[in-house]
Specification:
- By secondary structure, the protein is mainly β.
- The chain has one domain.
- Helices cover 0% and strands 53% of the residues.
- A hairpin with a 5-residue loop joins strand 3 and strand 4.
């Protein structure tokens, strides 16, 4: 799913936008279980955007 168009909230712009350069990352969760997330940049202001994803099906 890397590079896919993912919508996330930009805290700086205060709006939902499509992430640029989106990459799937793993983050620590409760009990040491890895959680999926997408990390990218806001196309308008360049701020780092982050979105927690659901479990893989």
């Amino acid at each position: 799913m890397a590079g896919a168009a993912v919508e996330a909230y930009c805290v700086k712009c205060k709006a939902k936008r499509q992430m640029a350069d989106a990459k799937e990352v793993a983050m620590k969760g409760k009990g040491g279980v890895a959680r999926r997330a997408m990390k990218g940049k806001c196309p308008k202001c360049g701020t780092t955007m982050f979105r927690i994803m659901g479990a893989k099906k």
